[in-house]
Amino acid sequence: MPKFEAIRLSLSVPTIGNLAKDRKDREPKLSRQEFLLEAFSRRIDFFYAGSLYHYVPGPKETQIVSIISGFIGKSVSETVASGPDELFAQTRTKRYKASFISVDIAPDKQIILFEKRSDVGNSRNILDQLFAQFIRERRSLSWHVDLEFMSRAVDFWKLAKKHEGNITEISFEFLPPNGLKAEMALDKLKQVDRVAKQTTNAEISEYSLKNKAGQLRPQGRFISDAIDYIEKGGGKATMKNGRHTIYSSHDERVIIPSPETLMPRQAEPTKIMGIADWLWKKLNG
Length: 285
Fold this sequence. Notes:
Blueprint: E1 3-12, H1 32-40, E2 44-48, E3 51-57, E4 67-81, E5 90-104, E6 111-115, H2 123-138, E7 144-149, H3 153-162, E8 169-174, H4 187-200, E9 205-210, H5 221-231, E10 235-241, E11 244-248, E12 255-257, H6 269-283
Antiparallel strand pairs: 1-6, 1-7, 1-12, 2-3, 3-4, 4-5, 5-6, 8-9, 8-10, 10-11
């Protein structure tokens, strides 16, 4: 059964690199939505892990409002037997492995649903290289793109209760808010965080809460809002007992199983629109 991972896109003003020098915090000319529209409306060829990958958007008529769907794949060479006229001699042939993806570029969404396939590769790493190539080809100031898996907060709270009295550390890594709503309990931290990043040229910030005796209590509005923010793909969270990891948001990813009968294996426009509509309804509950 096909399975899809949900990945949040966080776009921020670049702070590192030649194109960002002396910019005085000016933003790229394109809005975040326009930037993503340009990226996912064209073919992009790029390298990852020594292989040439290709992103190809679906037919234009398959775009549904802010949702763009397409395919990311790579070629695979294998040795097969030729026909009887060649006495079944071994020969090299090339075929392709591809994942279906669907992207919602709306300002309050900016999420990618990526078909998880071991024969295609790690979804987040592949997208990292896709954006790197796209930005190189643009040759103008572009948004800095961070990607993070969406996770399930319910597992955090279950494990926090189970390991009560044995929690020594809870750490958070926050990405820029982008389309995500930063909750009230995070406001003051966000203000400090913004000043710290501007002063130090940092792109990502990390915060840790520690109690060596194991009496750390994961409760209160700040923890609740932070976990909710990270659940939506705004960063990652880790909970530990000493060196032992009790919870990692990376290991608790949102996975959406899909019936094989819905998959557009022949790139049929009607099936592309059908599976995209089905997946987004599933994600949005």
